[in-house]
From TrEMBL:
<dbReference type="GO" id="GO:0000166">
    <property type="term" value="F:nucleotide binding"/>
</dbReference>
<comment type="similarity">
    <text>Belongs to the 5'-nucleotidase family.</text>
</comment>
<dbReference type="InterPro" id="IPR004843">
    <property type="entry name" value="Calcineurin-like_PHP"/>
</dbReference>
<dbReference type="InterPro" id="IPR006146">
    <property type="entry name" value="5'-Nucleotdase_CS"/>
</dbReference>
<feature type="domain" description="Calcineurin-like phosphoesterase">
    <location>
        <begin position="1"/>
        <end position="218"/>
    </location>
</feature>
<keyword id="KW-0547">Nucleotide-binding</keyword>
<dbReference type="InterPro" id="IPR036907">
    <property type="entry name" value="5'-Nucleotdase_C_sf"/>
</dbReference>
<keyword id="KW-0479">Metal-binding</keyword>
<dbReference type="GO" id="GO:0016788">
    <property type="term" value="F:hydrolase activity, acting on ester bonds"/>
</dbReference>
<dbReference type="GO" id="GO:0046872">
    <property type="term" value="F:metal ion binding"/>
</dbReference>
<dbReference type="Pfam" id="PF00149">
    <property type="entry name" value="Metallophos"/>
</dbReference>
<feature type="domain" description="5'-Nucleotidase C-terminal">
    <location>
        <begin position="309"/>
        <end position="476"/>
    </location>
</feature>
<keyword id="KW-0732">Signal</keyword>
<dbReference type="InterPro" id="IPR029052">
    <property type="entry name" value="Metallo-depent_PP-like"/>
</dbReference>
<dbReference type="InterPro" id="IPR008334">
    <property type="entry name" value="5'-Nucleotdase_C"/>
</dbReference>
<dbReference type="GO" id="GO:0009166">
    <property type="term" value="P:nucleotide catabolic process"/>
</dbReference>
<dbReference type="Pfam" id="PF02872">
    <property type="entry name" value="5_nucleotid_C"/>
</dbReference>
Amino acid sequence: MTIIHTNDLHAHFSEFSKYGIDCSAKDYTNHACYGGIARIKTVVERIRATEPNTYLLDAGDQFQGSLFYTYYKGNATRKWMNEIGYDAWSLGNHEFDDGPTHLAKFLKKLEVPTLSSNIDTSAQPELTGLVAPYLVLTKHDARIGLIGYITPTTPDIAPVDKVKFSDPVKPVQRAVDALHKLGVRRIICVSHNGYKEDIAVAQATRGIAVIVGGHSHTLLHSDNATYPEAVGPYPVSVKNSKGDDVFIVQAKAWGEFVGHLQLSWSANNKITHINGSPIHLTMDIPQHLATQALVDQWRAPFDAMAKQVIARFTHPMPYSECKTRGCRLGYLVADALRAQYRGKLPNTAHLPVIGMVPLGALRSSFGEVVTVGDVLGMLPYGDPWVETVVTGEYLVDLLENVAARKHKINGRPVTTWMQFAGLRAKVDRTKPDFERVSDVQVSVSGRADSKWAPIEVRGKYVVVAQEFLMSGGDNVVPETMPQLPKYGVMSDMLMAHMKTLAAGGSLVTVHDEVGVAFVN
């Protein structure tokens, strides 16, 4: 049998540059455009035509990440998924970005079975009957068991209302056991939980043959010379709780790659042969004409607006550099937040102002030329921002939570990295949790080249941040502040800030304030 798989498409229906944004003329000249659902369609049709017993799976996060989602809110996604003919998919955390009620409306018209074994929708009646823990596919004269699961951190990063999430190990094992009772022994998981987490699930369970993964945007590829960003071979093999092999695959994100896994089973339902490789969707792969015509049709209502140039910068601002350090893109957004503060809070005119934004709020890169579409794709959530006064101790505790990737008080995982403007610190990962942060400083005069002063534990500081973050999103802040007054929309705020920087058509210098830096 053959498994074709995608994950974390994030509504990247059009081809894109290496930064995940619309291709420029330079990208086309350099033959440097990738992906797009018209190329996915070409690859899927080719494989289906030449390889029998083919299954098409998706590991979640079809929603969010481009104007195709911002504008259509899943309607284009549903049409695409129905048309390409996925056999099943697992929910991703971003499918909850507009809440369970919106997700339910999407799923009711979706013709693809939706899987997630570790969620409980009993208190969310609109989702009743729309999500299954597992299913049995009976295509190609075979019975294949499919089990879905999702990251249990979803409540910290999405508005899930009354839907409950649990660690996947026990629910997945229950689903395996249920399939065994039905006589199904060939079992594949479709996971939106992350690569390292999938390894842990594989090791703690029995009866799973393959895990098709997503969430961590991990590239698994056996050609490490061509693809040095690959973190392991394709597939990766780990031992389960009985010592049997479990094979794990994942295909990066955005549809830049399509996974292609070939395997054979013995009469006693053991995998006897497995190989394959992700297919890189470069410009060498032709676009399926009818699908590309559909993409062009979907783009038409927002294309002219999306192409309006807001600012030109001295350097590109790739999202990839933001995952474990202060970065240009993160600083730009955090500095825009800081610039919004106009002394609205009483007795704050003399206080340092800090802008901060979680990495999870940023969804794509900026090139040197930034358009309206780039901003709406990079900040797609429509979030407001808030302003408050906190102590230095609060900020240090926040930094320690981020450095430990765990909350000091509630013990749950912190699910994001942070970007700052007006604050910097050093992190030593060799030290114990909650003792890793040192040399915390704040900007005195409020610019990238300003003077810096050590933070005072009992001192007071103005913080301007995304409302989602201060309300407890991503499990970062030491103490939530859910009732703060809300201001504007993040994307509008950033566009206004960029227009100010680019007044008169000037080229905007990209600052690279360090923010949080690792010393070990």
